[in-house]
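Replying to the earlier thread about multi-chain prediction with a worked example.

Input:
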Amino acid sequence: MKDKTKMNDMSVPRSRRTDDGLGSNSDIGAKLRAFYGAVQDQPIPDKFLDLLEKLDEVEQAGKRKGG
Amino acid sequence: MQETPSFKRELLATLPSLRAFAVSLSGRHDKADDLVQDTMMKAWAKQDSFQMGTNIKAWLFTILRNEFYSQMRKRGREVQDSDGAFTERLSVHPSQYGILDMADFKKALDGLPPDQREAIVLIGASGFSYEEAAEICHCAVGTMKSRVSRARTRLQDVLGIAGEADYGPDAVSAQVTTQSL
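Result:
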């Protein structure tokens, strides 16, 4: 076994530390994705869908009128 | 030119992730939704400048981020919402993490400087590469890497996890343990 060069890392399980430390074994990474996912998995609010329809309608109407 | 239908579809497909990014940036659902709406209108207005087939997600995230910072400059940074509003709105409780845990995490995330917060979210959750994230944030790839690294270290410190040191039960978990007795 090689000597540990960084004392601070001694208690860190070295099983898998990805480049950014946010991989599947990372607690921070998992919490971050759980937080993000909790928002992402919510249904898209109707107001967004309505807005998109409205933008589309206005554009279509504009095209019909004058190109 | 028939680019509109698929632009609309792609915009729609990106909305959930865009919204999660907006919540991460602003820390509040109501502000986040305003931000997403403003972004949708901006994106729609300048869709001619978007080239179909290129990364629409990165393009939309860039618009949203610019919008966020320009609004922040105008209004000044507002006080972050209490965690209550966030936890109340969670429709699905992630099975592996309790709701308290999630609120703690959000508080820790909100406590990061904005540049570190967006960096760790873009890389750790939104699924962007360092190159893409650097482009979205108008910074160098190396800068992005160091921001992510600092953000991760800081979150680990604040939350007392990931084995940087053995802190033992912190005040919050001690409280929870007491309450659950």
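Chain B touches chain A through 49 residues (CB under 8 Å).

Feel free to reuse this layout for your own posts.
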